[in-house]
Amino acid sequence: MNAKMPEDTADELGRRLHAAGFRPLPDVDHDGELLGTCLWRLRAGYVEYLALRPNGFAHAVRAHARFTYRWPADHGPVVEHRSGYAINALDWLLTTSNTPASVRSRPYVAAPKPNQPVWPPDGPDRWY
Hints:
Layout: H1 7-19, E1 23-28, E2 34-43, E3 46-52, E4 57-64, E5 78-85, H2 86-95
Antiparallel strand pairs: 1-2, 2-3, 3-4, 4-5
């Protein structure tokens, strides 16, 4: 099946992807034939991408954002992924993208009390 995505659906998808900060790259096979577009963005320690095909299907992936030039195909372990119609895959990616940036807890640190000295000292007698 090589049906094209409806024009109004493609326009809506493009507007939503651009507004969400996704950047496009062409996705080609080993023979140089265009397969579709891979759209990606970085988000709080993760890389998210949507491999979009001309027939309207897509594969959405969230992986840990790790990259090294020694192994350029590695991006860190895949955390979650979904496949389906492009609009549904994008909806899943956008509605689940509020994942925490780290598994480490970040306790609240209260502001200093008024009677505590400010550090580093910023008065005329500062020592540095």
